[in-house]
């Protein structure tokens, strides 16, 4: 966009942050398609390497949203907001949509690989926590690294979600701390450009791209607690 068309001097940074985020998500999508192929072909070393790269790419949007959060003023944002595309919403972001889709495919390919090789999530969690030799075999070790890569990727996208929520609360409002604690009437909640309450983002902030991962964490906790209780009796 030419200089003369910028809404204010911060507009350029606002645009750049969006572009960097979209390019990064597009690139992550590309690498994750390769992860699916590598998993299907039992090339778990490559899958792990590409997952590491994807997590690294996920750092760009995290850094840019942090930059906005730390350096963008509410007054500057509000002066642009009304002129920006009305009813625009991040929910339309092609990068995020495609990322969600490909992560479903990655999970499916990963579960299929585990089934092919008769490996369970518990085996991988135990292998990743192994503190000494002997190694149980290369396949289990590399699959445990792949699982760890998926875990780090999910945590990286949640990190973005949480920073974005903090950014939105700094620029539009809606932080729970602003709600009156004395029982008086709650002021009208701030709304997004498409007119939705900001509190809707709280649910998205904890959204996982790999829910199966977290189910296995809970199951491991429950099983370990049960075994400890049985051992104590
Ligand atoms: C500059 C200040 C920003 C504000 C005030 C803001 C506001 C919002 C709001 C209110 C939502 C909830 C959806 C809705 O009701 O429309 C949302 C979602 C979203 N925003 Fe932002 N946003 C900002 C910056 C960014 C940036 C820099 C990006 C990067 C491209 C971004 C990408 C998204 C995405 C992808 C979603 C959907 C969330 C998800 O899929 O989990 N936003 N944003």
Please write out the topology.
Blueprint: H1 11-40, H2 44-57, H3 59-71, H4 74-81, H5 94-116, H6 121-128, H7 138-171, H8 200-205, H9 211-232
Helix pairs in contact: 1-2, 1-3, 1-5, 2-7, 3-7, 6-7
The protein binds protoporphyrin IX containing FE.
Residues 17-18, 21-22, 65, 68, 89-91, 93, 96, 161, 164, 167-168, 171-172, 192, 194, 196, 198, 200-201, 204, 207 line the site of protoporphyrin IX containing FE.
Provide an overview of this structure.
The chain has helices at 11-40, 44-57, 59-71, 74-81, 94-116, 121-128, 138-171, 200-205, 211-232. By secondary structure, it is an all-alpha fold. The protein has a domain at 8-82 and 93-175: Methane Monooxygenase Hydroxylase, Chain G, domain 1, CATH 1.20.58.480. Helix 1 (11-40) packs antiparallel against helix 3 and helix 6 (121-128) crosses helix 7. The model has no long low-confidence stretch (mean pLDDT 92). Bound molecules: protoporphyrin IX containing FE. Residues 17-18, 21-22, 65, 68, 89-91, 93, 96, 161, 164, 167-168, 171-172, 192, 194, 196, 198, 200-201, 204, 207 line the site of protoporphyrin IX containing FE.
């Amino acid at each position: 966009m030419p200089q003369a068309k910028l809404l204010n001097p911060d507009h350029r940074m606002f645009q750049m942050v969006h572009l960097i985020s979209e390019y990064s998500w597009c690139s992550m999508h590309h690498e994750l398609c390769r992860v699916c192929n590598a998993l299907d072909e039992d090339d778990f070393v490559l899958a792990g390497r590409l997952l590491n790269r994807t997590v690294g790419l996920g750092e760009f949007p995290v850094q840019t949203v942090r930059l906005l959060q730390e350096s963008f003023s509410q007054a500057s944002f509000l002066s642009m907001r009304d002129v920006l595309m009305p009813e625009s919403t991040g929910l339309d972001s092609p990068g995020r949509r495609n990322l969600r889709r490909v992560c479903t495919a990655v999970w499916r390919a990963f579960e299929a690989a585990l089934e092919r090789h008769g490996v369970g999530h518990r085996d991988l969690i135990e292998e990743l926590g192994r503190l000494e030799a002997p190694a149980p075999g290369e396949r289990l070790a590399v699959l445990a690294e792949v699982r760890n890569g998926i875990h780090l990727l999910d945590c990286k996208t949640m990190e973005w979600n949480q920073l974005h929520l903090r950014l939105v609360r700094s620029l539009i409002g809606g932080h729970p701390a602003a709600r009156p604690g004395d029982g008086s009437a709650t002021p009208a909640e701030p709304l997004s450009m498409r007119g939705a309450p900001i509190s809707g983002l709280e649910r998205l902030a904890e959204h996982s791209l790999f829910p199966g991962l977290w189910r296995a964490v809970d199951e491991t906790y429950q099983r370990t607690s049960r075994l400890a209780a049985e051992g104590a009796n």
